[in-house]
Specification:
Blueprint lengths: L5 E3 L3 H5 L9 E6 L4 E7 L5 E3 L7 H23 L8 H15 L2 H19 L19 H12 L7 E7 L7 E2 L4 E3 L1 H4 L16 E5 L4 E6 L4 E3 L6 E4 L2 H14 L3 E4 L5 H11 L8 E10 L5 E9 L11 E3 L1 H4 L13 H15 L8 H8 L6
Parallel strand pairs: 5-11
Antiparallel strand pairs: 1-4, 2-3, 2-12, 5-9, 6-12, 7-8, 8-9, 10-15, 13-14
Helix pairs in contact: 2-3, 3-5
Length: about 375
């Protein structure tokens, strides 16, 4: 069966949670480029592209099945203020949905294409055959959404160790979202490691923020670095207006084109907030750096090419998050990469090797863990 032409990279069920009066048809929109405020835009017409995931419908259907499961869990969190137990099926579904949502958007595709193009130009500027025409060549990833989501699927297992809690907004101003709603951040390494990216899937100090309605958000975080609220509380009430403002600023800075909200946020509030922080908007989606090495015996110069996305860094200071004492003693040194969980990193490498050998399918990581007698949050 041919796929539907209009394919949403931010699910409609998700955006409906931010719709005006929760009626599901209109939503507030703020366009970043034009600074245009639309109090009641057409929700169906947001965050989609024709045949974004291809014309055969396979990837869209697979994502739809994940959305169907995730929507029930998210609605239950909102309606009954429940907390899916860590390592439960519901927890894994929400985590999977979050990681895929971070990597299935137009922003993710643009970032992947920008990175591929910059790597190509970095390499071939030095090629005598192409150096005069390399600027006329534009490199894009074939079937970019499929490829990027494939990489994400293999990375999901190394996020199983992340702790998570529900944030409950008790302030008068609602949480907003965007067309790129999953924010990766790292308060711990922000001031300690300034070169490269600090928000890789396996990086020490990783934080992941996802608002799921104007009143609720989910935070996944490195439990070996941060304490979030009181230890026993699974749902953290937020009474500090500054916390809500900062979480909303993350959405504005992480957005690609549009920010979405309901009637709890006024035009003045959003525009004032945007103009205060727009200088922090990312001017590039990807960075590629070349570090020249030594001349080898064959006379060729070998160099290291480092590529990464552009982290958001705004000195985030949320009242309900603190760095624990043990983490403060961690020596950053001059390491380029800081792995959060070396054991899980090694386990994932073993799994990928077995997938490549045809022993497991890419979606059988949980079976692999069960066969090895390993807990998902090991």
């Amino acid at each position: 069966m041919p796929a539907r032409k209009k394919q949403h990279y931010v699910p409609r069920f998700y955006l409906k949670n931010f719709s005006n009066s929760l009626e599901g048809k209109s939503i507030g929109i703020f366009n970043i480029e034009t600074e245009k405020f639309i109090p009641a835009g057409n929700l169906r017409g947001q965050a989609y592209k024709d045949y974004f995931y291809g014309k055969d419908g396979k990837l869209e259907d697979a994502l739809g099945r994940i959305e169907g499961s995730a929507s029930k869990i998210i609605n239950n969190i909102i309606e009954s203020k429940t907390y899916p137990v860590k390592d439960s099926e519901e927890h894994i579904i929400i985590l999977t949905f979050t990681i895929f949502l971070q990597t299935r958007t137009q922003y993710a595709v643009d970032q992947g294409n920008e990175m591929a193009d910059k790597i190509f130009k970095t390499i071939f500027y030095k090629d005598e055959r192409l150096k005069d025409s390399v600027d006329d060549i534009k490199i894009n990833i074939r079937n970019a959404p499929q490829n990027i989501l494939g990489i994400a699927a293999m990375c999901i297992p190394i996020t199983f160790d992340l702790s998570y809690k529900i944030l409950y907004n008790k302030c008068n101003v609602g949480l907003l979202t965007s067309d790129n709603p999953v924010v990766f951040y790292n308060q711990f390494l922000e001031s300690r490691k300034t070169i490269g990216s600090n928000v890789g899937f396996s990086t020490k100090g990783l934080q992941i923020f996802l608002p799921i309605s104007p009143l609720f958000a989910i935070i996944f975080y490195d439990g070996g670095v941060y304490a979030v609220g009181n230890k026993k509380d699974k749902i953290i009430e937020l009474h500090n207006d500054s916390d809500i403002t900062q979480l909303n600023c993350l959405q504005i800075l992480n957005s690609n084109e549009n920010v979405y909200f309901n009637e709890s946020l006024s035009q003045k509030h959003i525009i004032d907030m945007f103009r205060r922080i727009k200088k922090n908007r990312r001017k590039a989606k990807a960075f590629v750096h070349e570090y020249p090495g030594q001349i080898e015996q064959d006379g060729r110069m070998r160099s290291l090419i480092l590529s990464h996305g552009h982290d958001i860094r705004i000195g985030l200071n949320l009242s309900f998050i603190r760095v624990i004492k043990r983490a403060k003693k961690y020596e950053v040194g001059n390491k380029a990469v800081h792995i959060r969980n070396e054991r899980m990193h090694a386990i994932q490498s073993d799994f990928i090797d077995l997938v490549n050998r045809g022993i497991y399918a890419p979606n059988q990581f949980m079976s692999f863990l069960k066969d090895r007698g390993i807990r998902p949050s090991t």
